[in-house]
Amino acid sequence: MLAMRLPEMKRRLFEREQRLLAFFVYILKHHDFPFA
Measured between alpha carbons, how far is 9 from 7 in angstroms, rounded to an integer? Predict the structure, then answer.
């Protein structure tokens, strides 16, 4: 059972990480940070 759901869980985690990364890049592009 768990093995069948594992790909779905990993896909959801990957999608969440992609959204976080996209948000971070958006912030960097639209704001002037001292370290940017």
Answer: 5
pLDDT tens-place string over residues 10-31: 999 999 999 999 999 988 888 7
The answer to whether residues 36 and 28 touch, using CB atoms and an 8 Å cutoff, is yes
Instruction: Provide the pLDDT for residue 35.
Output: 59
In sequence order, the 6+-apart residues with CB closer than 8 A to the CB of 34 are none
CA dihedral 22, 26, 27, 29 (to 10 degrees): 140
**DSSP 3-state of 10:** helix
Residue with tokens 């992609």: 18
